Amino acid sequence: MESVKSQSYEVHIGELAKAALNQHIAKSSYSKIFVLVDENTKEHCLPFFKKMFDGSVDFILEIRSGEENKHIHTCLQLWEDLSNLDGDRKSLLINLGGGVLTDMGGFVASTFKRGIDFINIPTTLLSMVDASIGGKTGVDLGSLKNQIGVINQPQMVLIFPEFLKTLDPRQVKSGYAEMLKHGLIMDKAYWNSLAEKSNFTDAACIQKSIALKNEVVLQDPTEKGLRKILNFGHTLGHAIESYCLDNHDKKTLLHGEAIAAGMILEGYLSHELQGLSKLSLDEIKKIFLTHFEKVDFTDDDIDAILQLLKYDKKNSHGNVNFVLLHSIGKAVTDIKVPEELFQKAFAYYKE
């Protein structure tokens, strides 16, 4: 399986990943090697990692899993751990976990001693096809997603599809949403093939999604223009995710579940504002609702979700900017949406 070359690093898959890691460690003079895990990856993934890693790990750092722990207080704990264990600027941090852990681990490494090397080993489908590319690191501010962070590249990203066997089906489907998004914004043929697939976790599909995202990031590393298309479904999706995370009477949604709802909603806005055909819109809705349970939104929920849009990272000069679809496979950025269309979009979703 061919590796994918991003800005200053490569994404290696399977046996190539194992070889790349051991070669890198052998030629690097790291003073200490730390591995960051959560309780799930400690149990299910760390034993596999130790078997295929020829080097020695100096310390295992552990945090609690879940988006609710992706905040600065966890970072403070990790910075203190690294300092107390005599971590220095020649240390390496290996992040073994899903997107929450690799986002936060990358941020901790990027800021400790003004930056130490880190390697990401994503263990969920979502983190493999999304967080593995682009160098975005960071944490949430309260329930607001990814408000604090930096863009900084790892030494490498290592993909082991075996880890997907440790996940429950809901976690796997969360990553499927991001894969479908890659097709919607860039590649209609990929969208069509994914929509019909019963097995979307094979290495070829994972590599294709990584390559599509990488194609965008290489052209626009710091999200000044084209890279914004990767946010399709995320403006409303992140608001939905934050709202559900912050309200205990609502079911907490995984990232992909919230983004799936966001893509239907923003698909409707695309139909109204960018000429996405009704046929394509209905196809998008059908595919996502086939795989993702419909979220129940009350009128009060919708009002609260729309209030959260003002915190979206893509906002500029007081405007909420959307990524919309002109057609399946072609996205457009920086679209302003009239407020009256939001209620119509939710009404279409609820139909």
TrEMBL record:
<keyword id="KW-0520">NAD</keyword>
<dbReference type="Pfam" id="PF01761">
    <property type="entry name" value="DHQ_synthase"/>
</dbReference>
<dbReference type="GO" id="GO:0003856">
    <property type="term" value="F:3-dehydroquinate synthase activity"/>
</dbReference>
<protein>
    <recommendedName>
        <fullName>3-dehydroquinate synthase</fullName>
        <ecNumber>4.2.3.4</ecNumber>
    </recommendedName>
</protein>
<dbReference type="Pfam" id="PF24621">
    <property type="entry name" value="DHQS_C"/>
</dbReference>
<comment type="function">
    <text>Catalyzes the conversion of 3-deoxy-D-arabino-heptulosonate 7-phosphate (DAHP) to dehydroquinate (DHQ).</text>
</comment>
<keyword id="KW-0479">Metal-binding</keyword>
<keyword id="KW-0170">Cobalt</keyword>
<feature type="domain" description="3-dehydroquinate synthase C-terminal">
    <location>
        <begin position="175"/>
        <end position="315"/>
    </location>
</feature>
<dbReference type="InterPro" id="IPR030963">
    <property type="entry name" value="DHQ_synth_fam"/>
</dbReference>
<dbReference type="InterPro" id="IPR016037">
    <property type="entry name" value="DHQ_synth_AroB"/>
</dbReference>
<dbReference type="InterPro" id="IPR030960">
    <property type="entry name" value="DHQS/DOIS_N"/>
</dbReference>
<feature type="domain" description="3-dehydroquinate synthase N-terminal">
    <location>
        <begin position="61"/>
        <end position="173"/>
    </location>
</feature>
<dbReference type="InterPro" id="IPR050071">
    <property type="entry name" value="Dehydroquinate_synthase"/>
</dbReference>
<keyword id="KW-0547">Nucleotide-binding</keyword>
<dbReference type="InterPro" id="IPR056179">
    <property type="entry name" value="DHQS_C"/>
</dbReference>
<keyword id="KW-0862">Zinc</keyword>
<keyword id="KW-0456">Lyase</keyword>
